[in-house]
User: Fold this.
Amino acid sequence: MKNQLKVLEAACALARCAVTAVLISILGACGDRGGNPPAHTIGGTVSGLSADQRVTLRNNGANPTPVTANGAFTFGAPVVSGGTYAVTVSTQRIGKTCTVANGSGSGVTANVTVTCKR
Assistant:
């Protein structure tokens, strides 16, 4: 009888863990506790800028983000989970052209690459 009780306790513990994991998953998909939907930052990398150059990027035509050095960047305004993003170059330095790769999409991940060349 003691062994059966231990098996039953173990089964209940597993069931509690499974239910807890499902609830955490569901609640995580619902956003923050203020009722806002989940959101994700959009960003990527910039390369090809000289020390004195800068490029201004926009996401969905808004949220101007100046980038003054090569490396990682992120937009300050997040995109709602499942929402779309469209990264463009709004201003660039004379003498270089900056192009955007992987600049649009939807979902939760964005790996935007901005390459500036002469």
Notes: Residues 1-30 form one domain. Strands lie at 39-40, 43-47, 55-59, 62-67, 71-74, 79-80, 84-91, 97-101, 104-106, 112-117.
